[in-house]
């Protein structure tokens, strides 16, 4: 490939903007050119929130506006403000990939509207409604090698799935996981109101995000079992939103088929971090969630709090920056998928 992959972003919120920043910050970003962004907000506001980010800081580059373009370090990005895929002229953009970051499309018929409107491939920034909704769900570090370039719709799973699945996979291969219970303590998101409001069908998501610890519904267990079918029927999960703006943690409890102690689990996780340094992080000093803000690892094992009770009941704590790590995984999967698709097309 002698030109960068041509990419568009649909939905320029927390994840869409994090993706643009990840492309700007990462060496992998050289393989990608963002040619278009579709987002309902005004261009001036998009430029403002590109430049200033309360969580990730001031953008380390030049951001400007020029007619209907956002210019980042002088490079033009075509901006549209449609709320339906049919209202964007994707065909004219000669794209390799659209990254769907609005969170509004998770069923196959809805996602196929992007294909019908001229998008060659769509990478979705959330788990899809069911296995049939998507050609493949990819977690970098687990199964990205299964992409063969024939796919048109791929899901990048969720930030939580990206954090827990590589850890569960390692635990299962080393010690045999009999049962797993995953409790996610997740920072607030834009689907919650700042103070009580009628903005979500899930009653708990009508409550003030900054005033309460709020249990919310989650399809995480199904998502994990789809990626690790050997654990089907053995995983359950609970998700709790906590009033911080970024970085989340997973409290993972497993029963194992072989005896192990905390040192054995930590040695396994340290080896994983050495083998896949972009995916696993490892820390063994006293930490708080904010220490992991802007950390690109999918999962950072906090070895200082790993516990084993009686040899086969184990508990681990996993930190992850739900925005920045996930945006970097979108970039990993986007570049890998485009490269595989490009190679597959060659005679
Ligand atoms: N935030 C995280 O930590 C995180 C991590 C991993 C995955 N995700 C997933 O990524 C997706 C986006 O999350 P987010 O946190 O970035 O949400 P967000 O901040 O609300 O961003 C979504 C953006 O998409 C825009 N939008 C709404 N409808 C659209 C449409 N039809 N076409 C184009 N743009 C549209 C929204 O505009 P309006 O505000 O005007 O509606 C908003 O600016 C969700 O599926 C979420 O589950 C989020």
From TrEMBL:
Active site: residue positions: 159
Top-level taxon: Bacteria
Activates thiol group during catalysis (site feature) positions: 186
GO molecular function terms listed in the Swiss-Prot or TrEMBL record: NAD binding; oxidoreductase activity, acting on the aldehyde or oxo group of donors, NAD or NADP as acceptor
Location of the Glyceraldehyde 3-phosphate dehydrogenase NAD(P) binding domain: 5-159
InterPro entries named among the record's database cross-references: GlycerAld/Erythrose_P_DH (IPR020831), GlycerAld_3-P_DH_cat (IPR020829), GlycerAld_3-P_DH_NAD(P)-bd (IPR020828), NAD(P)-bd_dom_sf (IPR036291)
SUPFAM superfamilies: Glyceraldehyde-3-phosphate dehydrogenase-like, C-terminal domain (SSF55347), NAD(P)-binding Rossmann-fold domains (SSF51735)
Chain positions recorded as NAD(+) binding sites: 14-15, 125, 322
Keyword field: NAD, Nucleotide-binding, Oxidoreductase
PANTHER family in the cross-refs: GLYCERALDEHYDE-3-PHOSPHATE DEHYDROGENASE 2
Family: Belongs to the glyceraldehyde-3-phosphate dehydrogenase family.
Subunit field text: Homotetramer.
Protein name: D-erythrose 4-phosphate dehydrogenase
Lineage, uppermost ranks: Bacteria, Pseudomonadati, Pseudomonadota, Betaproteobacteria, Rhodocyclales
